[in-house]
Every structure is written in structure tokens, then in C-alpha cells.
Design a protein that fits this description.
The two termini are 12 Å apart. The chain has five helices and no strands. Helix content is 85%, strand content 0%.
């Protein structure tokens, strides 16, 4: 059992499953806020589609993280955990792109905080 992998994957599972659940539970509120957030960007007419893509990536990353925890405990392997980290990085890059596009530099900076452990996971797992 790899304590680093378990803690990192727990972090990613909590981060992405909670975020995905929030998007599902308040879809209309999220779409409304994001339409305003991206009103001056090329995404202004595609907010629901973009949100759906991010939601799908978040759910995949979170589920892979949970599966990676189970795999690490049962077989001491980190393959699924590595995939979880890679999907997490892709998801965070999509989010970073959106924040930069919207010129929300504080939001972009916050995403980097999540990106650091995810990219370390890709490197170490």
C-alpha cells in the first residue's frame, strides 16, 4: 500500500466528485453564472456544452481516483491512480483555459494549486 498514492487519490476523488455533484445538483445556477462569466469570450454561446464536457471529465477523474484507491489497497498497483492523475490534469487544463479566456486571473491561479498535486501524481505514480 502506497500512502502517497492513497492520500493524493483521496484528494482528487473529493475534489472532482464534489465538484461534479455540485454541477449536477445546481446545473441551471452553474450555467447561468458561467454564461455571465464567459459573456465576452468565444465560449459565450457554448457554455452548457463546455460545462457538460468539464462535468464528464470531473466524474471520470473522481471515479478513477476511487478505483485507484481500491486497486492500490487490494493489489498495490497504481495504474488506475496514474490514469486518475492524468485525467485530473487534463480537466484542470480545461478549467485553466476557461479562466484565462475569461481573464479571471485569480481563478486561474487557484486552479494551479490543484494542478500541482495532480501533476506530481503523474510523475510519482
Amino acid at each position: 500500500m502506497n500512502a502517497f498514492a492513497l492520500l493524493l487519490l483521496a484528494f482528487l476523488a473529493i475534489t472532482f466528485l464534489q465538484s461534479g455533484l455540485d454541477k449536477i445538483m445546481d446545473w441551471n445556477g452553474n450555467v447561468s453564472w458561467l454564461k455571465s462569466h464567459f459573456s465576452q469570450t468565444i465560449l459565450k454561446n457554448n457554455v452548457p456544452a463546455a460545462l457538460l464536457i468539464v462535468l464528464a471529465l470531473e466524474i471520470v477523474a473522481g471515479v478513477l481516483a476511487v478505483m485507484g484507491i481500491i486497486e492500490n489497497i487490494t493489489s498495490h498497483s497504481t495504474q488506475l491512480g496514474d490514469y486518475a492523475c492524468m485525467v485530473s490534469c487534463v480537466t484542470l487544463l480545461f478549467l485553466l483555459f476557461g479562466q484565462r479566456l475569461a481573464k479571471d486571473y485569480d481563478g486561474a491561479r487557484t486552479i494551479v494549486i490543484y494542478f500541482i498535486p495532480a501533476i506530481l501524481g503523474v510523475y510519482w505514480l
